[in-house]
Amino acid sequence: MGCNFSTSRGDRGANALLELAPVMTAGNGNPAPELDRNTLLSALSNVASYISSQRANITIVAVGGAVNTIFFQSRQSTHDVDFYNSHLRQADYELILKGVEYARKRDPILQGEWFNNRTILFIPKAQRGYLTDEAISQNEVVFERPGLKVVAAPWNYAICAKLDRCAGAGINGPRTYDYSDAATYLHRYLELYRIRSVPRSAILAWAASYTTTVTDAVLQELNTVFHSKYGWSAIQMGA
Asked: Which stretches make up the DUF7582 domain (predicted)?
């Protein structure tokens, strides 16, 4: 139980995804509360505590606002913790569900959707295993306690997911912080690989591999935002 690399996929049914993905109901249309860094860390600690009490350890991959709020501290708060891990078993999901409920009972601000895996529904099935393995290999730790480890999604994937929305190709429209988030992810990518910039062609190749959309106009805007944040242009537009 808690194995991150189960070879058996048959015991992971669709219900595991559906149970953790938020369901809109008549009373669930109100904006979700903002969760700051301390609230998120406390909530994740409670999830970890429950899973550890069951003598299990689970690793998940976080995307979006939780990464910005906890890892980068570039946002004051976010609505939820969005995660994936295509290697989780049904037993792992059941532990997570119970851990999430355990955390909710200890903090009334947490709503039912504060911890969910709806992001997996937007990742093509053929890419889920690869993106899980890449995130675990990258090992950018957002949170870690006995029972639960949270790592960030691959930075190049996170960049492309933001740029896809900026290009208007995503299901949800672009948000005011998308370019800033993409610049933050790109800066960390450059730090991690100890390089100063990436060629335009590399980002286009990432986008193609993740089935996302990136345009030159979007890359130019990202370069502008990056330059304003960090003082140089990180994308080689002619390469």
From this structure: 38-231
